[in-house]
Design goal:
The chain is of the alpha/beta class. The chain is built from 13 helices and 9 strands. The protein has one domain: Spore Coat Polysaccharide Biosynthesis Protein SpsA, Chain A, CATH 3.90.550.10.
C-alpha cells in the first residue's frame, strides 16, 4: 500500500535536478553565485550539475572548489555530533550536492544541456544560466506548476542586471531577449505558452523521453556564435510528440541575469538580432515555419509596432531615449529579417536538417 502513496507524493512534489552549463573562467564569480542561489532555495534541489563545455582548466578548478566545500561541510557535521548529522544535519545538507561534469558532446550549449539531462537523477530537470542567480522561491514556483500532470515544462521570468547599473535609454524592453531576459509582450502571471526560455526553465524527465534532447547545431556556442532558438525547437517538437502537453511560464519564478558592459552597446544588439534571424531560419527548417514562427508573427505585428509608437510618443514628450528606442526596434526587425532570409537560403542550399539528440536515462530509476 505504500507504493501508491510514494508515487502520489512524487507526482505532487517532484525532485529537481538543476543543470548549469559553463564555458569560461571569466565568469568564475558568476558561476559560484549561480550555484549558491540553487543551494539556498526554499524548496531544495536534489542536486546541481555543473556541465563544463570543453574547458578542462575550468572543470578542474570547479572540481577542486566543490570538493573542498564538501570537505568543509563534512567536518562541520562531525563537530556537531553524529546525532545531529543524522537528523537536522541531513536537512541542512539538502540540495547542496554539486556534481561537475564535462560536456560529453560537441561544443555548445545544447550538447552541454543534454549531458546534464543524461546524468541527472530528478523527476524534473531545471536549467539556470551560469551568469544568473535565482530568487529563493524559484524552484517552489516551478514545483507548483507540476501539480497538474498535464504540465511537462515550466519556465520563469528573467530580469536583467545591467553592468552600468541602469537600462540604456535607447534599449527597448521589447528586445530584452537580446540579453537573455523576459521581454515586453509576454503575458503576465502563470500562462500557457508555445515555448519556455532556456536560461530559466524546467522539464519533466519524460519530456526528453518523448521528444529527445536539445538539437545540436542550433543554439549558442560560448561567445563565438550568439545564436539561440534551441529551446523553441525542443518545445515545438515536444508538443508534437505529446499533443496534450501543457507548457507554462510562471512569472513568479524569477532569476536575475547579469548583462555585461559590451552587451549594452548597439553593436551587440545588431549582431544578436541578426543571429536570432539565422536561428529562426534553422528552427523553421527543423519544425516548419507555421509553428516555428507562430509566436513571432504576433510579436512582429502587434508588440513591436506598439513599441515604436511608445518610443515616438516619448520623443514628442521629450522623454529620454524615446527616439532611440523606436529606432532600435526598427533596426532590430530589419537585422533579424536579414538573418532569417540568409539563414533560409543557406539551409535550402545545404539541405541541412536537425534531428533530436538522444539523451540517456541517467541515474534516475
Amino acid at each position: 500500500m505504500s507504493a501508491p502513496a510514494d508515487s502520489a507524493a512524487s507526482a505532487a512534489s517532484p525532485a529537481f535536478s538543476v543543470v548549469i552549463c559553463a564555458y569560461t573562467e571569466d565568469r568564475w564569480e558568476d558561476i559560484l553565485a549561480a550555484v549558491s542561489s540553487v543551494r539556498a532555495q526554499s524548496r531544495p534541489a536534489l542536486e546541481t550539475l555543473l556541465v563544463v563545455d570543453h574547458n578542462e582548466a575550468l572543470r578542474e578548478r570547479l572540481l577542486k572548489e566543490y570538493a573542498q566545500g564538501e570537505d568543509r561541510e563534512q567536518g562541520a557535521g562531525r563537530e556537531h555530533g553524529a546525532g545531529r548529522e543524522h537528523g537536522a544535519g541531513r536537512e541542512h545538507g539538502a540540495g547542496r550536492e554539486v556534481r561537475v561534469l564535462a560536456n560529453a558532446g560537441p561544443r555548445g550549449l545544447s550538447a552541454g544541456r543534454n549531458t546534464g539531462i543524461a546524468a541527472s537523477r530528478g523527476e524534473v530537470v531545471a536549467f539556470l544560466d551560469d551568469d544568473a542567480v535565482a530568487e529563493r522561491d524559484w524552484l517552489r514556483h516551478f514545483a507548483e506548476g507540476y501539480a497538474d500532470p498535464a504540465v511537462v515544462a515550466v519556465g520563469g521570468r528573467t530580469v536583467p542586471v545591467w553592468a552600468s547599473g541602469r537600462r540604456p535609454d535607447w534599449f527597448p524592453e521589447e528586445f530584452d531577449w537580446v540579453v537573455g531576459c523576459t521581454y515586453r509582450g509576454l503575458p503576465p502571471g502563470r500562462v500557457r505558452v508555445r515555448n519556455v526560455l532556456g536560461g530559466n526553465a524546467s522539464f519533466r524527465r519524460e519530456a526528453f523521453a518523448a521528444a529527445g534532447g536539445f538539437a545540436t547545431g542550433i543554439g549558442r556556442d560560448g561567445d563565438r556564435r550568439p545564436l539561440g532558438g534551441e529551446e523553441t525547437e525542443l518545445c515545438i517538437r515536444l508538443s508534437r510528440a505529446r499533443p496534450g502537453a501543457v507548457l507554462l511560464i510562471d512569472d513568479r519564478a524569477v532569476i536575475h541575469h547579469r548583462v555585461p558592459g559590451p552587451r549594452e552597446h548597439f553593436a551587440y544588439f545588431r549582431t544578436r538580432t541578426y543571429a536570432e534571424g539565422l536561428s529562426k531560419a534553422l528552427v523553421a527548417r527543423s519544425v516548419g515555419a507555421q509553428k516555428g514562427l507562430e509566436s513571432e508573427r504576433r510579436y512582429a505585428t502587434r508588440v513591436l509596432p506598439a513599441g515604436v509608437v511608445r518610443g515616438l510618443r516619448d520623443a514628442v514628450l521629450a522623454r529620454p531615449g524615446g527616439a532611440g528606442r523606436a529606432g532600435a526596434i526598427v533596426a532590430g526587425v530589419l537585422s533579424a529579417a536579414g538573418g532569417y532570409v540568409l539563414g533560409s537560403v543557406r539551409a535550402r542550399r545545404s539541405g541541412v536538417a536537425f534531428s533530436p539528440a538522444p539523451v540517456g536515462e541517467g541515474a534516475h530509476g
